[in-house]
Design brief:
- The protein contains four helices and 35 strands.
- It is mainly beta and about 575 residues long.
- The two termini are about 30 Å apart.
- The N terminus is likely disordered.
- About 5% of the residues lie in helices and about 35% in strands.
- A hairpin with a 5-residue loop joins β6 and β7.
- Strands 12-22-19-26-17-16-13 form a seven-stranded antiparallel beta sheet. Strands 2-3-18-25-20-21 form a six-stranded antiparallel beta barrel.
Length: about 575
C-alpha cells in the first residue's frame, strides 16, 4: 500500500542519532504554476518587498464564480424585508455585494477577490458534537448602525496588480476627508475619499504586492478622529495538490487502503456529491452520524444563531487516517426559513479549538463561499496612536473557495505585534449561496500546522539501533513492520521481498546499525529487523516489537537481534 507520488511528502533522514523532535519548516509561500513566490517577513516589519504577495490560487478562465445573494440580488440572505434581517445576514449580504462587485463588474482580468469586514467575534462553550468546535457569535461592537461601518476589498488581476477599495457607511459622514492608510505600522499614505454608489464613501488605490498576513490600518483624517479600522486579507487558502505534497506518508492512508482526499470517491459520481452521500447505507465505510434537528445552526448563548439549515455530516466508521475525516453537506437555500429567522442559510460561525481544521473543496465543480475570522489582529497598544474604531478588534475575511482549494483554521495562537502579546482565535463560517447543495470535506489535524500554506506538521522522530544481526557479504539489514515507511508488512511474513522496508546503515563510531524515520503522532504498529540476503531471500528475526507515537517526543529503539522465540 502506497500513497500516490504527487501526494507524498518527504522528510530528510536525520544526520544525528540523538533523540529529538524534528520539525519541518517549509516556506510560508508556495508556488502554483501561475503564482508569484515571496519570502516570509516578520509580522511587525514594513512591507517593502514587491515579491511578497496575496497568492491567488487558480486563474480566472478556469473557474465560474457564482453571483452571491446580496442586498441588490433578487433574494438576499435573510429575506426580502431589510428590517427583519439579523446581523449575520446583514454582514453576509454586504460581503456578497462586495464580491459581486469585484468579480462581475471589474472585467475579465479579475484573478482573485477578497473582502474583509471589521467585526467582533465571540466564542462560546456550546458544542454540538464535542469535537473541539464550539459555536460562535458576531457583532459590530460599539457601532450603533445596522450595516458594517466599513469594509475593505482587495482585487488582484491576472498580471498580479492589486487594487484596494475601502467603503465607509454614509452615517459616518466622512465625505471630504482624507484616508490615512498604514500596513503593519509602516509609514502612512493618504488617499482622497469620494462619494460612491448608494451614498457610500470610498477610497481606491493600487498597491505593490504585499504579504498575505499583512495587517491594514485605515482611518479618516477629519471628522471621525484618531481611531483605526483594522483588517487583513489572509484567507489561509492553499491549492489542494500543493498542500497534499507537503503531508508525510502515513497521514493520508489507513490500513484499509482508504486515502485522502475523497476516500469514498464521491466526487467521481455523476449524481452529485449530496445525492451520492445520501445513499450511503448501514455498514458503509462512511455513515451519517449527525443531522441538525432544528433549523437554527450554531446558536450562541447571547448573540443568537448565525445561520439556518440542516447540515449533514458523515463520519468514518472505519479506522481513520491521522487526519480525521468527514464529509459535510449544506442543502440548498431555504428562503422561507431565512425569512422567518432573518438569517442566511449555511453552517454558522464556529470557533476552532482543536489543533486545526481544513475545509476542502474537492467534491464540487463550483466555488463555496467561506469566511475565516480572526480575533485580536492588532492589540490596542500596538496601534501606534488611537484605538480600534467602535471596538472592532477582529476581522471576517470572505472569499470563494474554488474547486481544488482548501482553507485551514488553527487553534488559538499566541502572537506578538509591536511588542504586545495577544491570543488570536480563529473562526469559520460556510454559507449556502444558491438553489443547489454544497458538499465539502473536513479534515481535523492531529497537530498544529506551522504555516498556512503547507502541512508542516511536527513529526515524531524514531531512531532505531540494531546489533548482533546475522549479516553476510552482500546482505542488507532493515526494519519492517505494519506502518507505512516500514513496508506495511506483518513481521515474519515469509512471502515479503523486503523491497519497501526501512534500510539500516552501519555506524562504525557507534558500532551499531542505525535508521531514522518520522511518524505522525498517534500512530502505532509492530516492527522487527530483517536481513535481505544477497540472493533476494528475507530472514526475519524471531520476534516483534510494538511502536506507539502517542505524543510528540522522539523515540529511541535499541534492538538486539532476536535469535530465539
Amino acid at each position: 500500500m502506497s500513497t500516490h507520488p504527487k501526494y507524498r511528502g518527504k522528510f530528510r533522514q536525520a544526520d544525528s542519532v540523538s533523540v529529538r523532535l524534528l520539525v519541518c519548516l517549509l516556506p510560508v509561500y508556495f508556488s502554483c504554476d501561475d503564482a508569484v513566490v515571496g519570502t516570509s517577513v516578520p509580522q511587525d516589519q514594513s512591507v517593502t518587498d514587491s515579491t511578497q504577495v496575496i497568492d491567488s490560487l487558480t486563474p480566472r478562465p478556469s473557474r465560474t464564480v457564482p453571483v452571491a445573494p446580496s442586498n441588490t440580488a433578487s433574494v438576499p440572505w435573510g429575506g426580502m424585508n431589510p428590517s427583519s434581517r439579523q446581523l449575520p445576514a446583514v454582514i453576509a449580504n454586504r460581503a456578497g455585494s462586495a464580491l459581486n462587485w469585484a468579480w462581475h463588474e471589474q472585467g475579465e482580468s479579475v484573478f482573485d477577490a477578497i473582502v474583509s469586514i471589521p467585526v467582533q467575534l465571540s466564542e462560546s462553550s456550546i458544542s454540538s458534537l464535542n469535537d473541539g468546535i464550539t459555536h460562535a457569535g458576531v457583532s459590530l461592537g460599539a457601532w450603533e448602525g445596522t450595516q458594517p461601518p466599513m469594509i475593505a476589498i482587495m482585487v488582484r488581476n491576472a498580471t498580479g496588480d492589486l487594487r484596494l477599495r475601502v467603503e465607509f457607511h454614509p452615517d459616518l459622514d466622512v465625505l471630504g476627508d482624507d484616508l490615512e492608510v498604514r500596513w503593519d505600522n509602516s509609514p502612512s499614505m493618504k488617499y482622497p475619499l469620494t462619494e460612491g454608489t448608494n451614498g457610500y464613501v470610498i477610497a481606491e488605490w493600487n498597491e505593490p504586492l504585499v504579504r498575505d498576513d499583512a495587517i491594514l490600518q485605515v482611518r479618516t483624517i477629519g471628522s471621525v478622529g484618531t481611531d483605526w479600522y483594522v483588517v487583513h486579507f489572509s484567507h489561509q487558502t492553499s491549492a489542494l495538490d500543493t498542500y497534499l505534497s507537503t503531508i508525510p506518508e502515513g497521514f493520508l492512508e489507513n490500513d484499509s487502503g482508504w486515502s485522502l482526499p475523497d476516500p469514498a470517491s464521491i466526487a467521481a459520481s455523476d449524481s452529485g456529491a449530496y445525492a451520492e452521500l445520501g445513499i450511503l447505507g448501514p455498514g458503509a465505510p462512511y455513515a451519517l452520524f449527525e443531522s441538525a434537528s432544528d433549523t437554527l445552526y450554531s446558536p450562541h448563548a447571547t448573540l443568537g444563531a448565525t445561520a439556518v439549515g440542516k447540515s449533514r455530516i458523515w463520519g468514518a466508521s472505519i479506522p481513520t487516517v491521522p487526519l480525521e475525516h468527514r464529509y459535510e453537506c449544506l442543502p440548498a437555500r431555504d428562503t422561507s426559513e431565512e425569512s422567518s429567522a432573518g438569517l442566511p442559510s449555511g453552517m454558522g460561525w464556529h470557533t476552532v479549538r482543536n489543533q486545526a481544521k481544513s475545509i476542502v473543496n474537492s467534491l464540487e465543480l463550483r466555488p463555496i463561499l467561506t469566511a475565516l475570522g480572526q480575533t485580536q489582529l492588532l492589540p490596542p497598544p500596538a496601534l501606534n496612536g488611537g484605538q480600534h474604531a467602535h471596538s472592532l478588534t477582529d476581522s471576517a475575511v470572505f472569499r470563494w473557495l474554488h474547486p481544488g482549494e482548501l482553507a485551514v483554521a488553527r487553534e488559538p495562537q499566541q502572537t506578538e505585534m509591536g511588542g504586545v502579546a495577544a491570543q488570536r482565535i480563529q473562526h469559520v463560517w460556510v454559507l449556502a449561496d444558491d438553489s443547489e447543495s454544497r458538499c465539502f470535506e473536513t479534515w481535523f489535524h492531529p497537530c498544529v500546522p506551522i504555516t498556512i500554506s503547507d502541512f508542516t506538521c511536527p513529526g515524531v522522530e524514531v531512531v532505531f539501533y540494531g546489533t548482533d544481526a546475522p549479516i553476510g557479504d552482500g546482505d542488507e539489514l532493515g526494519v519492517g513492520g505494519t506502518l507505512q515507511g516500514l513496508g506495511s508488512v506483518t513481521p515474519g511474513d515469509e512471502n515479503w521481498d523486503g523491497s519497501s522496508g526501512l534500510n539500516m546503515v552501519f555506524d562504525s563510531g557507534l558500532d551499531k546499525w542505525t535508521a531514522t524515520m518520522l511518524l505522525p503522532p498517534g500512530t502505532s504498529g509492530t516492527f522487527a529487523m530483517y536481513v535481505k540476503r544477497s540472493d533476494g531471500t528475507v530472514l526475519w528475526e524471531n520476534g516483534r516489537r510494538v511502536l506507539e507515537t502517542t505524543g510528540i517526543d522522539g523515540q529511541l529503539h535499541q534492538m538486539q537481534w532476536f535469535a530465539y522465540q
